[in-house]
Amino acid sequence: MESVATSRRSGWRRTYFNVLAIPYWGIHVAAVAGVAWLGWSWTGLLLALALYVPRMFFVTGGYHRYFSHRAYKTSRWFQLVLALGAAGTFQKGILWWASHHRNHHKFSDQPEDVHSPRYGFWWSHHGWILTRDFEGTDLSRVKDLARYPELRWLDRWWFVPPLAIAAATYAIGGAWALVWGFFVCQVLTWHGTFTINSLSHVFGSRRYATTDTSRNNFLLALITLGEGWHNNHHHYQVAARQGFRWWEIDVTYYVLRGLAAIGVVWDLHGVPDHIRDAAPAAPDLAAPPPALASPE
Ligand SMILES: [Zn+2]
Ligand SMILES: [Zn+2]
């Protein structure tokens, strides 16, 4: 696998315009063109947002807290539901996502951190995911997931669930539902997720003196159903909750609590008091990450 610096030096055309980036840009164009063609619709926006919430839950409760961090336990059938829902958000395979995310925590804001904002906003937002240089999955980091054949299958055929969602929206509601319920919703889900990589290591406060530049950000926590408490998360990654205080809104955690109440998930990993009450970060640690010279 290439180093991030080498990939960055290869230039923006190679990063952003390759065969695998076609669906990404195509869906952006389809969303804008579709809304222009059909005309603005508040009901349409409502549909996009109504579908955004469960899809974002699968990103945070699935890809992130379950598959990457194993922050709670569940049955094999619900694990498959989480996998299908997560893959349905068009962010590549479960094993791919989890292996890159585990590397992010291992190398946070060091040169090996593939989406550190030290490499620039757009790179950390979506450049790293669009380039073909990081298409591969480091299976040694996800052995616990790779032992399930259904997850390996879904990792290979990761584009099937989103295509099925697109087909279902069209079958149920025609072109209008396809545009608002899939294209617009998909663009919102992508950029909502990507703000965690691009913004939550840059804007916000630092409660804990972690070795990275992670921040807590209330607005991002609302947009991402709780992922904006990113400094909390880097401080204690295995917790099922990322809002550590009652006022730190964490919708994903509330959903997980609800699922635990009916026995669908269990053993939600909590936050011990001594971890939550650790000394606050010194102000001088709140400096933004050092910028690297742009390769272009
Ligand atoms: Zn992070
Ligand atoms: Zn994480």
Helices and strands, with pairings:
Elements lengths: L3 H6 L2 H5 L5 H17 L3 H27 L4 E2 L1 H12 L6 H13 L14 H10 L12 H4 L2 H8 L3 H39 L19 H6 L6 H6 L15 H11 L3 E2 L6 H4 L20
Antiparallel strand pairs: 1-2
Helix pairs in contact: 3-10, 4-5, 4-6, 4-10, 5-9, 7-10
The structure holds zinc ion (2 copies).
List keywords for this structure.
296 residues; mainly alpha; binds zinc ion; two-stranded antiparallel sheet; 14 helices; 2 strands
Strand order of the largest sheet: 1-2
Sheet-strand content, in percent, reads under 5%
- Helix and strand composition category: mainly alpha
Largest sheet: 2 strands, antiparallel
Count of helix runs: 14
Return the domain count. 1
Task: Compute the separation of the termini in Å.
Answer: 21 Å
Number of strands: 2
Question: In a nutshell, what does this entry contain?
Answer:
With 296 residues, the chain is mainly alpha-helical. The chain is built from 14 helices and 2 strands, in the order H-H-H-H-E-H-H-H-H-H-H-H-H-H-E-H.
How would you sum up this structure, described in words?
With 296 residues, this protein is mainly alpha-helical. It has one domain (4-286). Helix content is 57%, strand content 1%. The chain contains 14 helices and two strands; from the N terminus they run ααααβαααααααααβα. The chain has helices spanning 4-9, 12-16, 22-38, 42-68, 76-87, 94-106, 121-130, 143-146, 149-156, 160-198, 218-223, 230-235, 251-261, 273-276; strands spanning 73-74, 265-266. The chain has a two-stranded antiparallel sheet. The model has no long low-confidence stretch (mean pLDDT 91). The protein binds zinc ion (2 copies). Residues 104, 108, 201, 214, 230, 234 line the site of one zinc ion.
